[in-house]
């Protein structure tokens, strides 16, 4: 089934978000995320705010060297979109040995009054091996 215009826009925003995570691009992350962002990690800690999330990416506390997204689905309902995918990444978090993650991700995007898709929520869970 062909993607709708909104599904394509959300998929494109998700790809920009992936690239900004790898590049540590705070300006792009700021542009793509809603001020009310809640960013949940797979470890179960309290979700980060937009400010905390961007600071941790930019300062290297959370450093993605590579990110590969697979099995992505995009569902749009009005001004809300739900994206699910598998994220496999190599990491080099500040003060830690190189690592890797294999996660299932849920992203919730919403279209603002200007017609821009903004990331409102993200939650990760570890895959079962």
UniProtKB/TrEMBL annotation:
Bilayer-crossing regions: none
SUPFAM superfamilies: NTF2-like
DUF4440 domain residues: 11-119
InterPro entries, per the entry: DUF4440 (IPR027843), NTF2-like_dom_sf (IPR032710)
A Pfam family hit: DUF4440
Domain of life of the native organism: Bacteria
Protein name, per record: DUF4440 domain-containing protein
Organism: Filimonas zeae
């Amino acid at each position: 089934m062909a993607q709708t215009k909104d599904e394509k826009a959300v998929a494109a925003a998700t790809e920009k978000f992936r690239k900004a995570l790898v590049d540590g691009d705070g300006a792009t992350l700021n542009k793509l995320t809603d001020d009310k962002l809640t960013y949940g990690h797979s470890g179960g800690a309290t979700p980060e705010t937009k400010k905390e999330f961007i600071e941790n990416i930019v300062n290297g506390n959370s450093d993605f060297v590579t990110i590969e997204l697979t099995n992505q689905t995009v569902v749009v309902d009005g001004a809300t979109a739900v994206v699910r995918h598998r994220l496999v990444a190599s990491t080099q978090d500040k003060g830690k040995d190189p690592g890797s993650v294999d996660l299932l991700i849920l992203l919730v995007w919403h279209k603002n009054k200007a017609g821009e898709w903004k990331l409102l929520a993200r939650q990760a869970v570890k895959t079962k091996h």
